[in-house]
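quick q for whoever's on today - can somebody do inverse folding on this one?? i tried earlier but teh output was garbage lol. tokens:
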């Protein structure tokens, strides 16, 4: 009888203990790591491949940290109206104030112009890491006490050299790029790079069309005057017939049907637009570098402004063998072997 009472008492005691809630993990508990928060602000839209690659690079850099990554989009390519962008940026700032992420990663120039420079720069928090910025950082007042990041460099010198290696008979090239502010910045970078010495091809003309129809005329002029065409940005060309921005795929389809000169690209989307070759910017590299800087801030508690500015180094070599065949060009095997992206 006493034995049965003892067993019953032990069962009741164990049941009482198991019913108690488990203690919450504390930041100071050995082995426990506090939840961290990062907001990634993309200048463009979710479906844009560049944004997806930037996000992939950021996540890879932060993958084994207990961090929550929230992604927001300004949609500046599809909706470039300044007033609407200012309104979106103000709403994002209000969200940042409410959510209080430790780090904001701001990708591309629109995010700097509309959000970081007017609202976040110079504050105690959050820390800000930028990436994909074509302008000189000083254009936005960077670096600042809480701001540092990664400048984006287009590979002009390497690209012209690649085109010359593919076809040594080429001597001149026309560069075409739209009238967007991003084009202003990358072309300024090309002029700065040219000061270090001549390019492998002579850039005889830079065309800056505003509309789709002007782009087509500029392409025809360029083909009559130069050996090759270098295609920069064409994401903001307005169709004069509709008043709307032409889809990049529409521009690319026309280019493929009408350009009979060798073509060189620099932007990431060139890989899907039929260009002969290119040394392309890497959104994943931009995200990886920015994510690594954010990681340093999160792990060591340092101010972003204490980190040195960085610049991308790696370009992705693109070759399109279908386009080469259409142009009756034979690309040397050693060039093909070294390429990261080969379209067959």
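ok took a stab at it. sequence:
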């Amino acid at each position: 009888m006493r034995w049965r009472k003892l067993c019953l008492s032990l069962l009741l005691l164990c049941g009482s203990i198991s019913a108690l809630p488990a203690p919450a993990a504390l930041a100071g508990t050995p082995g426990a790591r506090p939840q961290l928060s990062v907001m990634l602000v993309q200048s463009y839209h979710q479906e844009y491949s560049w944004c997806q690659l930037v996000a992939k690079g950021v996540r890879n850099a932060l993958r084994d940290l207990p961090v929550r990554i929230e992604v927001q989009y300004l949609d500046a390519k599809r909706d470039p109206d300044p007033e609407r962008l200012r309104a979106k940026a103000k709403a994002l700032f209000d969200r940042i104030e409410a959510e209080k992420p430790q780090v904001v990663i701001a990708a591309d120039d629109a995010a700097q112009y509309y959000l970081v420079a007017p609202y976040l720069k110079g504050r105690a928090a959050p820390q800000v890491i930028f990436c994909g910025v074509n302008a000189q950082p000083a254009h936005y007042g960077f670096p600042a006490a809480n701001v540092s990041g990664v400048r984006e460099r287009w590979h002009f010198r390497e690209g012209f050299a690649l085109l010359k290696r593919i076809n040594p008979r080429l001597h001149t090239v026309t560069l075409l790029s739209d009238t967007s502010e991003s084009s202003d910045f990358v072309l300024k970078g090309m002029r700065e790079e040219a000061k270090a010495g001549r390019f492998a091809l002579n850039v005889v003309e830079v065309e800056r069309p505003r509309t789709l129809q002007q782009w087509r005329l500029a392409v025809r002029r360029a083909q009559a005057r130069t050996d090759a065409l270098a295609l920069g940005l064409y994401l903001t060309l307005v169709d004069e017939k509709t008043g709307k921005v032409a889809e990049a795929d529409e521009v690319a389809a026309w280019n493929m049907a009408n350009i009979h000169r060798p073509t060189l690209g620099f932007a990431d989307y060139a890989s899907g637009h039929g260009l002969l070759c290119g040394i392309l910017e890497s959104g994943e590299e931009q995200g990886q570098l920015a994510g690594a800087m954010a990681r340093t801030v999160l792990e060591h508690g340092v101010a972003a402004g204490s980190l040195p500015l960085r610049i991308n180094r790696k370009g992705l070599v693109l070759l399109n063998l279908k386009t080469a065949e259409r142009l009756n060009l034979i690309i040397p095997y050693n060039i093909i072997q070294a390429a990261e992206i080969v379209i067959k």
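fwiw The longest helix spans residues 2-19. also The domain at 156-280+316-343 is CATH 3.40.50.2300 (Rossmann fold). so keep that in mind when u check it
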